[in-house]
Amino acid sequence: MDFNQLNEFVTNHLLLVMAFVVLLSVLAGGELKRRISGVQQITPAEATRLLNHENAVMIDMRNDKEYRNGHIVNAVHVPVKDRDIDGRLDKYRDRPLIVYCNNGNQSTQLCGKLRKQGFEPVYNLKGGVLAWQRSELPLTRGK
Hints:
By secondary structure, the chain is α/β, with parallel strands linked by helices. It has 2 domains: 3-35; 39-134, Oxidized Rhodanese, domain 1 (3-Layer(aba) Sandwich), CATH 3.40.250. Helices cover 51% and strands 12% of the residues. It is built from 7 helices and 5 strands. The protein has a 5-stranded parallel beta sheet. Strand 2, helix 4 (64-69) and strand 3 form a beta-alpha-beta unit.
């Protein structure tokens, strides 16, 4: 493909090219932001290992209804709307924290906030509770 063909394609499909550039920018920006935050993404299998061998604590940041419909066993429920997050989690400062939401996107932000407040290590469950379910790991219902 030569430059003239590329130029003609871009001219004829300007909206498509613009949409591609915007999507690429959003994806690259999100990945860059995640890497800068220093939050480590872990898989459900890695989370299970941390739970079993390092006494990690699962932090469920979803809303009350989502939590009641199914959450990881023994997860601490800290809804994102809850302003007193650090007060509720202080007793877990000496343990690894694994934060999750539905798909792993919102929990990255909470992980960054917890790291700034001195919690270490803090992990984000990659893919959230949906990835947990896809891995056929158990959920419990109710409070």
